[in-house]
Amino acid sequence: MSFVDREKELGFLEERYRSGRAELLILYGRRRVGKTELLRHFAVGKRPVFFVATLGSRAAHLASFSEVLGQRFADVLGAEVRFDSWEAVFRFLGRRARDERLLVILDEFPYLVQADPALPSVLQKLWDEELRHTRLFLVLCGSSVSFMEGELLAQKSPLYGRRTGQYLLLPFDAREAGMFFPNKSPKERLEIYGILGGVPAYLEQFSPDEALFENVQRRILQKGSYLYDEVRFLLMEELREPKNYFAILRAIATSKTRLNEIAQSAFGEGEARKAAFYLDTLQELRLVERRVPVTETKPHKSRRGIYRLQDNFFRFWFRFVYPYMSALEAGQTELVWKEKIAPFLPEYMGQVFEEVARGYIARAAASERLPFIPERVGAWWDGHEEIDVVAIGEGGRKLLLGECKWSTRPVDLPLLEDLRRKGEYLRRSVGLRETEFHYALFSREGFTKRLERRACEDGVLLVTPADIFE
Predict the structure, then answer these.
(1) Which fold has domain 176-349?
(2) Tens digits of per-residue pLDDT, 47-59?
(3) In a 10 Å sphere around its CB, with 0-12 CB exposed, 13-18 middle and 19+ buried, how is residue 171 labelled?
(4) Residue 339 needs a FRET pair 20 to 30 A away by CA distance; which of 57, 147, 271, 464 works?
C-alpha cells in the first residue's frame, strides 16, 4: 500500500517522540483505516520493537514476542531467548530504555489482552514503578474501537491516567481521498469517494487508469474480489449476531432514518428498544451516526434525530450490492451496474455531496475564507423545509446557509433565491431576529454567468468540485 498524506498524524507522533520523555500513546481506529501503515512509516529509521498480535494464547504471544526481541537485541539476548511473563518483557524493555530512546509498538493490543486479561494491570504497575522514568516510547494500537475506548481509555481501566496521549485515526475526507487519484477529474474523485469512502485499504483497490464503471464491476460487484464480501467479513469479525446488524444497516441504507422506521423494517412493529441497542453499538463503531438539526441546543434529547450510515462504502454496499447478491453470484455484474446502480448514482451522490460540502465549510473557516468561524456545522430540517448546510457562529448571531446540487446543469439564480427564502423561514421558525445570514452554493457543474455576477455583488460563496480539491 502506498502511503498518502497523514502529515498531521505523523507530526503528532514525531513531536511526542522528540520529547525524550517516557510516552505511553494509544492509537486506535477501525480496521483497514491505515494504523499499521502509519506506524511503519513513523518507525522508519528508529530501529523499533514492532509486534503485531494475532488471535492466540498468552504463551504463543510471549513466544512470538520473545523472537522479535531476540532479533532486535541479538547482541544482548541471543536468538534463543524466551520470556515467560509480560512483567519480564517490560522490565527488560525498561532497562534498555534507560540510556536510549526505544520505540515499542504493540499492534492489535486487544488480542494480547484477550489472551491475558491481567496485562493492563501488569503494565500499569510497571509504568508507575519504573517505565515512566525511562525514555520508552510505547504505542498501544488496536482496531476494536469499543475495546480501546472502553477498556483502555475509560476511567475503570488500570491504565487510566497513565497514557500521555491518544489518537483516533479516522478515514480520509474527500479531499484527502482524492490524492489517491491525482489524474482523475474532481467530479470523478468525488464519485469514487462517494462509493469507497475514505478507508485507505478500499481506495487502494480502484485502478486510477480505469473508468468508474470498470472499477465498480471488477472490484466491488465481481464475486471473489476484495470488496465484494468486505462488509460481511468485517461485521462478522467485529460483532455478535451479525444478521441483526445487517438488518439495521440495510434499513438505514434504504432511507429508513428514524428509530421507529428502522425498528419496523429490521425487526417488526414494537421493536424500537431492540433496534436502539444495536444502533448504540453501530455508533460506537462509527458506522452509524445520529443527527439532529444543527440549531438544536440539546441534541441528545431532540426528537428530530435521524440515523445515517457514516461510512460511504457501507452505504453503497447495502444500497447497491447486498440486495442483488443473487444476480452477482450468477456473474451478472454488467446488468446490475446498468440497471440497478448507474441510473440511481446521481441521486445517491446528492447526499454524498451535501456531506462533502459541510466538510468543506469547516476547512474554509480554517483558511479564513468565511466571514466568521463556525462553532457548529450541520444541516437543518423540520416537517416542511430543509437546508443542506448550516454553519453557526458568534453564539448564533451569524449563520451561513448552503445548498448543494449534484445535477448535470449549471446552477442558476432561482437556487439562490430559494435559499434566501428558506433562510427567512428558518429565521421565523427558530427565532433568529438579529441573526446575520450569509450564503453558499455548491454545484457539480458550476454556475451560470448571471448567478456568478449576483454572487460577486452579494458576497455569496460559490463552490465547485475543483474548489473542494484545491
Answers:
(1) Arc Repressor Mutant, subunit A (1.10.10)
(2) 999 999 999 999 9
(3) buried
(4) 464
